[in-house]
């Protein structure tokens, strides 16, 4: 079977390819900084500040790469936008390294923590701006993102100013005193799926059947499935005889509705059973949760959605959007995990074997927090997420694989809840994302709502 082509996606991990030791000053014999230019996928400074802030502290920055430099390596660091504009430059030292799969935490990403030793004034001001943004969002100062952006590095030295303390490496999720950007789920027990407990007040507690924290996956499964985690429907596919094949359910459905509900028996139901009660019990039926994942409760998008959706959207202890089902408040990671677990069960029933590995597609405009939330949801569902792939990139793979094309293409993904597009350069078996954009409120559901509004 032919191997799939390599993909140069926005989140595929950089490969610096730099000398571990670096050049030395001939006069003093001291090791000179190794030049590292990181070209990011962001098109504007505001986008960089908004989406890369989780990777920055006043002490340093976390850079995701599958080939981190050795601890102690001095770097002349320069961060650039997609346009080539430099947004940050300075010098630093690699203080810690996160090797791939070296941490049991599902959000840990391979990369290196770089302590700033020198930053120029504009860069220092930009760091202060990004740290202030993190603090307003409720992210603990000094905590680097465990699922940061992947750089596209090349080799160039750079100048700069002023030492600062080092940022700590990402380890276990922070305590409640230092909230993390992605909240760990509420209490649950895998040993009793959909169990209902009795509270002292006489009300029933709903158990999702999800673990309290992600558990070790165990032996990796032979099969790796691809999962399209959609706004309205989700599905799984597997490569069969060299071609992708959509996995049907026992009932013959190719998709699973991305809906989670609380039924009349006070039990959690997912998929078609949940959609069946969408009209009769809308307040206990959660749909369109993909739009909420990783968003602060106070954001304009969430407040706009609160007015449109019949179920209750609330704030969780970390200030992120969550939903209420009966007496329980579920994080959006839990809601997504329930959907992913249902899709995984469909795949396992069809293939007749355990499946615990998957590639999951997300909208091209998803930021680092949202991608980390999807990884956490996968871990809660008992899935090791091999990769997060942009939806337009996945479409480009399906279109160009094996055709040896050399062209620039525009790929758009018009789904039930979102619309996004990407421009890609196809060079034989290398696909490079040139630009992405999208709209959270421009999908099929929004078309339906406009038609209804017009009729009313």
Quickly list its features.
Nucleotidyltransferase, domain 5; 8 helices; six-stranded mixed beta sheet; 456 residues; single chain; alpha+beta; disordered N terminus; 30% strand; 24 strands
The CATH class of the largest domain, by name, is Alpha Beta
* Euclidean distance between termini CA atoms: 55 Å
Kindly report the CATH topology of the largest domain: Nucleotidyltransferase, domain 5
Query: Strands of the largest sheet, in order across it?
Result: 3-6-5-4-2-7
Structure in words:
The chain has three domains: 7-154, no CATH class; 196-391, Nucleotidyltransferase, domain 5 (2-Layer Sandwich); 397-455, ATPase, nucleotide binding domain (Nucleotidyltransferase, domain 5), CATH 3.30.420. 21% of the residues lie in helices and 30% in strands. The protein has eight helices and 24 strands. The chain has helices at 45-52, 121-137, 272-276, 300-308, 332-351, 368-380, 391-400, 444-455, and strands at residues 7-8, 34-39, 60-64, 74-80, 86-98, 111-119, 152-154, 196-198, 204-206, 225-228, 233-240, 243-246, 256-257, 259-262, 268-270, 285-287, 312-315, 321-325, 328-331, 357-362, 384-390, 405-414, 419-428, 430-439. The chain has a six-stranded mixed β-sheet. Strands 10, 11, 12, 13, 20 and 21 form a six-stranded mixed β-sheet that branches. The protein is globular, with a radius of gyration of 23 Å. The termini are far apart. The relative contact order is 0.12.
């Amino acid at each position: 079977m032919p191997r799939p082509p390599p993909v140069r996606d926005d989140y595929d991990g950089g490969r610096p390819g730099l000398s571990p030791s670096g050049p030395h000053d001939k006069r003093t014999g001291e090791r000179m900084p190794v030049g590292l230019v990181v070209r990011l996928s962001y098109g504007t400074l505001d986008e960089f500040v908004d989406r890369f802030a989780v990777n920055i502290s006043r002490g340093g920055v976390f850079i995701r790469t599958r080939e981190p430099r050795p601890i102690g390596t001095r770097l002349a660091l320069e961060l650039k936008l997609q346009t080539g504009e430099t947004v940050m430059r300075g010098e630093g030292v690699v203080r810690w390294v996160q090797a791939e799969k070296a941490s049991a935490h599902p959000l840990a990403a391979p990369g290196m923590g770089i302590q700033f030793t020198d930053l120029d004034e504009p860069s220092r001001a930009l760091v202060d701006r990004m740290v202030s943004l993190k603090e307003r969002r409720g992210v603990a100062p000094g905590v680097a993102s465990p699922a940061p952006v992947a750089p596209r590095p090349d080799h160039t030295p750079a100048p700069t100013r002023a030492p600062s303390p080092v940022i700590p490496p990402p380890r276990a999720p922070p305590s409640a005193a230092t909230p993390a950007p992605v909240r760990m789920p509420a209490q649950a027990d895998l040993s009793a799926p959909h169990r209902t407990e009795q509270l002292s007040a006489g009300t029933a507690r709903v158990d999702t059947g999800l673990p309290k924290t992600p558990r070790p996956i165990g032996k990796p499964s032979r099969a790796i499935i691809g999962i399209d985690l959609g706004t309205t429907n989700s599905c799984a596919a597997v490569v069969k005889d060299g071609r992708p094949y959509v996995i049907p359910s026992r009932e013959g459905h190719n998709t699973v509705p991305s809906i989670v509900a609380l039924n009349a028996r006070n039990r959690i139901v997912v998929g078609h059973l949940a959609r069946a009660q969408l009209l009769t019990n809308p307040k206990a039926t959660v749909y369109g949760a993909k739009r909420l994942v990783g968003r602060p409760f106070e954001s304009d998008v969430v407040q706009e959605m609160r007015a449109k959706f019949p179920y209750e959207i609330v704030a969780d202890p970390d200030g992120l959007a969550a939903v209420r089902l009966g007496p329980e408040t579920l994080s959006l990671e839990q809601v997504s995990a329930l959907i992913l677990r249902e899709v995984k069960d469909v795949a396992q029933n069809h293939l007749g074997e355990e499946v615990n590995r998957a590639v999951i597609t997300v909208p091209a405009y998803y930021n680092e927090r949202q991608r980390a939330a999807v990884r956490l949801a996968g871990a809660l569902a008992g899935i090791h997420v091999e990769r997060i792939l942009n939806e337009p990139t996945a479409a480009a793979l399906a279109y160009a694989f094996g055709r040896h094309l050399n062209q620039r293409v525009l790929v758009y993904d018009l789904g039930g809840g979102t619309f996004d597009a990407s421009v890609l350069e196809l060079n034989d078996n290398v696909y490079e994302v040139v630009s992405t954009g999208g709209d959270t409120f421009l999908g099929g559901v929004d078309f339906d709502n406009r038609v209804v509004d017009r009729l009313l």
